[in-house]
Amino acid sequence: MKVWAIANQKGGVGKTTTVVTMAGLLAKMGKRVLLLDLDPQGSMTSYFQYNPDEINNSVYNLFRLQRPVKKEDVKKILVNTSHENVRLAPASLLLATIERSTQNKDGMGLVISNALSMIDDEYDYVLIDNPPMLGVLMINALAACDCLLIPVQTEYLAIKGLERMMRTLSMVTKSREHSFNYIIVPTMYDRRTQASAVSLKTLRSTYPEQMWKSVIPIDTKFRNASELGVSLVELNPNSRGVVAYESLLTHLLEVDNLMKRRSAEHV
Ligand SMILES: Nc1ncnc2c1ncn2[C@@H]1O[C@H](COP(=O)(O)OP(=O)(O)O)[C@@H](O)[C@H]1O
Ligand SMILES: [Mg+2]
Asked: What pairs with residue 36 in β-bridges?
């Protein structure tokens, strides 16, 4: 099982869209995918037409257990999505209370990591959607992931937001035992505008190593897909948005294989 977290402290940069689209692509390849919604606003939960205000069993349950998490605890909260191979651990509004209630409690940063270890053999990929702020929820995602995707909108203000995310990241990786890969994904690239081109150039020169080499273009069809509660992969597999995410996925799978080979060589 591979765990990918999708995070950025800025909202509206394409995090949820990235999670949903990548899930659609992985499912199409026959992979078993689990989605985790760690955003108290529950955008991804709403995307799949569940109401985060009314949900009884959600990721929140896992944080409220007064004992070690069991496999059944995780299975109990999962719901179906429009994709046969994709299950969702939804968010509920109560998740918003986690930040305060878990302060000063030991082990709260590993709730998700422990929960996922219970269902390790049941999924090929776990994708974690994150809230746009640093807190115990995002810390949980970073502690659990093998790879972090940071979507960044190609515009000036988003680049400022990225600087914050990078500081957070270096803080978190310092305290983590094993490091993880991360990759910056430029999103909503509008090739007709100068602003997009300039931002992309700035990103590439500031983060030459960490940037994905290509971009996710603006594609209005993403909105249509979200209104229907399906990923764009199902609605319009040949749209340029999907094609771009396909090439991102190919890249990530190549990196995974490379890592696997390297660790095999080291044994
Ligand atoms: N590549 C894209 N082209 C056009 N619209 C997009 C694209 N990616 C995301 N969107 C739209 O932008 C809005 C914010 O995206 P979302 O994925 O919800 O961001 P976040 O999760 O970071 O807040 C949504 O309405 C979504 O449909
Ligand atoms: Mg979101």
From this structure: 89, 128
Nearest alpha carbon to residue 124 among 1, 257, 27: 1
The Cα 133–Cα 213 span in angstroms is 26
Q: For residue 182, give the CATH number of its domain.
A: 3.40.50.300
Model confidence pLDDT, tens digit, residues 88-122: 999 999 999 998 776 666 778 999 999 999 999 99
From the CB of 218, is ligand 1 less than 6 Å away?
yes
Tokens of 118: 């219970």
**Cα-to-centroid distance, 85 and ligand 2 (Å):** 21
- Nearest atom of ligand 1 to the alpha carbon of 20: 17
Split into its structural domains, the chain has a count of 1
**135 CB within 6 A, ligand 1:** no
- Kindly state if the Cβ of 219 falls inside 6 Å of ligand 1: yes
Residue nearest to atom 9 of ligand 1 (CA): 14
Residue 267 is predicted with a pLDDT of 63
The CA–CA distances, whole Å, from 212 to 44, 62, 149, 187, 237 equal 24, 34, 10, 11, 22
Alpha helical stretches, state H, the chain: 15-28, 43-47, 59-64, 71-77, 98-101, 111-118, 136-144, 156-174, 194-206, 221-228, 232-235, 240-266
The CB of 109 under 6 Å from ligand 1? The reply is: no
- Structure confidence by residue, pLDDT tens digits, 205-241: 999 999 999 999 999 999 999 999 999 999 999 999 9
Ligand 1 in reach of 223 Cβ (< 6 A) = yes
- Identity (one letter) of the amino acid at 153? Q
Tell how far the Cα of 13 is from the centroid of ligand 1, in angstroms. Answer: 6
Residues spanned by the domain of 117? 2-266
Q: What is the pTM of this model?
A: 0.96
